[in-house]
Structures are given as C-alpha cells and as structure tokens.
Predict the structure.
Amino acid sequence: MNKDSGQRIKFAPGEALRGKGATAAEGFFAAGVSCGVRRAGELDLGLLFSGGPCVAAGAFTRNAFRGAPVGVTEEAVADGTLRAVAVNSGNANAATGAGGVEDARRMQTAAAEALGVEVGEVAVASTGVIGERLPVEKVEAGILDAAGRLGAGDDAFAEAILTTDTRPKQASATVRVAGKTVTVGGTAKGSGMIHPNMGTMLAFLTTDASVEREYLNRTFLAAVERSFNRVTVDGDTSPSDLALVLANGASGNEPLDADHPDAPAFAAAVEKVCVELARAIARDGEGATKLVTVVVRGAADEKSAAALAKSVAGSSLVKAAVFGEDANWGRALNALGYSGVAFDVGKAAIRFGEVEVFRGGEPVPHETAEANAQLSGEEVVIEVELGEGESEATAWGCDLTYGYVEINGSYRT
Amino acid sequence: MNKDSGQRIKFAPGEALRGKGATAAEGFFAAGVSCGVRRAGELDLGLLFSGGPCVAAGAFTRNAFRGAPVGVTEEAVADGTLRAVAVNSGNANAATGAGGVEDARRMQTAAAEALGVEVGEVAVASTGVIGERLPVEKVEAGILDAAGRLGAGDDAFAEAILTTDTRPKQASATVRVAGKTVTVGGTAKGSGMIHPNMGTMLAFLTTDASVEREYLNRTFLAAVERSFNRVTVDGDTSPSDLALVLANGASGNEPLDADHPDAPAFAAAVEKVCVELARAIARDGEGATKLVTVVVRGAADEKSAAALAKSVAGSSLVKAAVFGEDANWGRALNALGYSGVAFDVGKAAIRFGEVEVFRGGEPVPHETAEANAQLSGEEVVIEVELGEGESEATAWGCDLTYGYVEINGSYRT
C-alpha cells in the first residue's frame, strides 16, 4: 500500500488556508460530497485527513446496542493513532448484523486506499436511520470523490455529517504552548437522540499541537465529560455516537504531556472547543427554539452537581415550560429532587436569569411576569445554589416544542 | 374528640349502594365538592371515609423534594391504620416551607373533626401547582361540606382529585376468600409528571376484606411495583405522589395473612385493580392519543425485564414515532440498549403488534406499511423477547404529541 499520502489531494484555488472547525488546525484537510445515501444533491459523505501521522483518542457510545462503525473505529484508535475519518449521514449502519460490520470495514478500506494510508489509520462513522443496510457502493464512490476534493475549508464536511441538524457546528481555539501558537478545532453534528453520555452525536477535533498520547487521551476524555456528556435534547442516547481527536504536531511545539507547564492551557483549549460544540448541539436540538443552560453550584462534588444540572436540563416539563416562557420553577426543583442526588431542599436556591424564585424551602416573592421575561430570549439560564459544598457543573439542553414532535413523529416518512 | 364516626353522614336518596372505584368495597363512602382552590364550580376537594376502622398501607414518592402532605400522611399510616383520606386538587402544597406543613396538618385536623375520628386516622394529599401556599380556609370549608355529602358513589370524589387528567380513573375486582366475596376497588389520578417510581399520581384503594396488616403492606407494595411503578408519561416524577390502601374487613372473611390458601387470589385482585388504574393513567397521559404497552419476556430476572420495558415506554423518540404511527423499531432497540441492562442484541427479537421486525441482530424483512398499521389503533403493543432467561415484565406509557407540549408550555397561564 502506498503510504505517500496526499498524492491525490488537489486544493481548490483561492480556498482559505484554514477552516473554522476540523481544519482550523494546520495540516488538516476535509471535504464533503453527495454520494446518494440521502436525497440527490444533499451532502452525505465527509472525509477528514491529516497530512502527517497523528496521535488520537476517542470516546464511544455507552449504549449496549452499538452501530457497526463504532466497533470498527474503536479498534482503529486502540493504538492511539489515526490519520483520517470517513463519515456518512443518512444511514447509521446500526442493527445491520454481520453484513453491517463488513460494510463499515469496506468504508474504512476505501478511505485508506483513496488516501494512501493504512486501514488501521482510518476511523469511520455513520449517522441516520437505524436498521437498513448501508448502500456501501455509493459510499465507496463518495469516498473516492471526496478524496479528490480535500481542502483546508471544512464547510462541506461540516454539512455532510448532519442529519436533522439545521446548522453546521464548528469551533476553534488557539493557545500558546512553549512559545508556539497551536490551534484546536472541531466539527460536530447532533440534534436529536441526544443525552448525557453521548447521544447521536459525532465530534471530530483536530489540533496541530504535538501531544503525548496518554495525556491527549486523558485530556480529551475529561473535556468530553464536561461538554458532550452534559448535553441533553431528549433523553435518548444513540448507538452511533463517537467523538475523536487527532493531533498531528504540525505546529512544531515541544511535545505536551501532563507535566508540561502549558498542559493546563492546552486542556482548557480542548475543553473550550468541546463546550462550544456541545452548546451548538443543544441549541440545535430537534425543534428547539431556545438553548437552556443549567448551572449548579455549591454541590458536594462535581459528579453530584452534573447529575443535578442534567436532571433539570433533561426534564420534559422544564423544557416545555421554557418553550411556553413560563418560569415554572417548581418543575426545576422537582427535577433536582428526582436526580438521585441527596440534598437539603431547605438550603437550596433557584434563580431564573436575574430573578431568584426559591430559597430556604419556599418561594421568594417575585413578579411572575418578571420571572417569565427571563425566558423570553434565545438563551435561558437556570442557576441553582445548593449550599452543600464548593463544586459546580453546567449542563445544556433546549426547549421541548411542537417542532420536536413533528420531526420525530415523521422522521422516516 | 367524638369517635362515634359517621354521625354527620347523610346518604343521597336513590344513590347506588356501591361505587365503581374507591367505594366499590362495602363500608366505604366518598364525596367530591368544589371549594374554590380551582376555578369556581370545578370539583377540587375529595373525601374518602370508612364506616369502621381499617388496616392500611402506603407507598410514597421517592423524590428528594416532597410535598408537605406526603410527610404528614406517611406519619399517619406508619402505625398501619387509617380511616379517612382528604384530597385537594389545584394546589400541590409543595415547596411551601414550614407553613405548608402546618396547612397539611390543618387539613388533616379538619377532616378528623368533621368525621369524628382521630387526627392520626386521616391521610391527606394535594396535587396541582407547586410553590404556592394552599388556601387552607377554603380547603377546611370544603372538607366540612364534603363530610355532609358522603355517599357510596365515588364519581364526584374521582373527579375532584383530577388536575390535567381528562377522565376519572376507577377500577374494582371481586374475589372469593374463605367462602366470602370480597371487593377491592380503587380511584386514581395521574396524567403528567408521571414516571416509574410514582409520578404525580394519587391512588386510593379500598377493600372490605379482613387482612392482616403486614400481609396487606407487602401485597400492596408488590402490586404498586408491578403497576404504578411501571407507568411513564414524561420521565418526571413528582413531589406529591402517594398510593394508599385501606382494608376495613366489612365482608367478614376469616382474616387473610401470607399463609392463608386464598392469599394469592387476594393479591391478584389487588394487582389487577392497580394495573387497571395504572393503564388508565398511561392512557390519559397529557396530550396522549394512544396507550403504549411494552412487554419484555425472556429476561434473566424481573427487575431487568422491568428496566428494559420502562426504557422503551419512556423513550421520547419511541413515543413520538408511535404518535406518527411510524414503526421505527430502531428507536425501541436503541432504548433497550441504553436501559442499563446488559443483553445480547444478537439473541433479541422485537415485535410491533403482529409484525416481527427484528431478530438475531438484524431486521426481519417486512412491509413497512404493515408494521405501521400495528400503530394505528388506540393501543399499541411492543413485545421484546430477549432469550436470556424466563422472567418478564410489562410497562405502560403513551405517545408524545403536540398536545403534551401545549399543555405543559402553558399550564400556569
């Protein structure tokens, strides 16, 4: 196999040198094409590629039922290296039996051959309808097509991985590390079937930092925990979810490990990109009109704070109240109560935006209209103070709307 | 205090001797009146009374945030006896601090005085809006009014305890025990904020059987586990939930205990009434158009089967698909996968009504239209066979509709 990668890469003239998401870091190239899995003309095949070898890490769905590509990709990243990612939308290649695994491997092989890399350097992902075999010939042809169109912009890639999303999701951050500027970028998709612990979401982060493998893995998993694992749209998790990070070292920095003085700055950049993408996923929740941010402070530990915040963000009744711009804080209190975390209601306080509504076991007198007005914007913030300790956590969700019902009552038809 | 109970009871002439729910058993009387907690003319105060002393048992919300009446009632039933229940709708008396507890005690005392029984023989319950003080004078006046109207029909009682419910919920069963016919009846409410482990639901069972206290408690809790704890409407549990059973022994049977040969028949009657009420609650889920019954068979144990069934019945995506009459079985498989129960997808099978859609890790070829047709009626049955063991469980839910969003986006306005 030809390992002299990139020989098929042609750059579109005038294209920006860096993209806004997965190609924001140096040395990463992407493309998105239409291969016919979705309706004619809709982008449905994305390819992401690094000009040089990368260390890599991944986080995978915890659903007991997993799509075929998840296992194939987990195997590929097990050695801590990757060089390319091939993704299709429109079909999740899940509940497709042994034939589905074969299809995922064909997809992986097609990308390896098109890019001149080893099969084990390619991650694959699929998102869309469950239980139908992937039209793998179309995907193979699409991969070949995309390999010839790789460029530094990732807008087409960002669009090709979407399903019911209404917007592409890209984010990036730069940080100085040992005297060099390194970039962390990412592109994600996710709209429905989103819940803590990876809903139907895909996220592909890249960085031109030089990073030691084990440190990258630990940093990435911590960032995933504080971002994608704190998003809930509808309480469902999916069989297809995965998040990957690839670091190609193109910025030439002194390699980062856990002991490097700039390690915290790098970790913060990774977390920032993950959080920005997570917020974009929540904001684009199926049918959503509002992003809901729930902050829990004063918890005994971060795990408790996160469970409480996710419980409020995930409550159907809270979500419907936000849609109706009804500051029904009793529902928030209620969701705290069934989170499974013990706390003293008498010490808790709840704030909707600027208005404190509950403290010390009873309502704080306030104008209902003023509290409701805190829910009128596109972003709603619910803050909880527990008075139990010093830890805090944030979770993100969205409102529950007629649109959610419409989208999911007729997805396949 | 005057313990010669019943002196205020007047029976309406021509009224049926037995009701369809909580007064189906001999010696129980009920009434429902309008006391002004809800809008003028809407029934909002229910009173249930036994002519003689009862052994009793209760199950209570597991929400860490509990309404004031829950604690008061738990205390009342702790000695295993009760004689009356006073319930209001329109206000949950929850998140109301120390004043709320005082209000619940005033409600309890008012009923005890009106009925001439001990304060500790009265259970209280409140359901409705959270976080507003109960207008307790109105409730006290309503209790006096209701005490003067007690009768053997429980239709007004059944209506007075409703909130967003669209229908009263009553059920009864008769069974021969030691040569006597005994009746078990019950009246319940519940529509939104319903989830396994007691959502906003209230259930009041009565029986004229003579039952040993500890056996009644065990039998009742087992029936609650297999009925109310397997209903999910929206994933939210409430601070106000409780289920009670009162047994007054009016049928004169030889007392039942766990060793009595007719104990299983009695337990089956209790479970039957609980299941019938649980199904009625699911069918009347906020905005629901369909009852969804999920049966999981072939599980390693009943607890696993119940967790799997509840996960499918509770999935927003499954619920929206049922609303859309779209036999999107991938979502059901997905919900099994994130239930937290380990199982082998390769051994599982899924059936929508009469149509098997998935077996052995892949789809069973079928006509989509035929599968969708299984979802066209008012009751949808999803069956799962795991192939892991011999245990089974059933859970009940409903579809997710525009109506749910409408009701909960504007409940207080």
Summary: Chain B is about 30% helix and 25% strand. The first strand of chain B starts at residue 28 and ends at 33. The radius of gyration of chain B is 22 Å. Residues 107 and 137 of chain B are 9 Å apart (CA to CA).
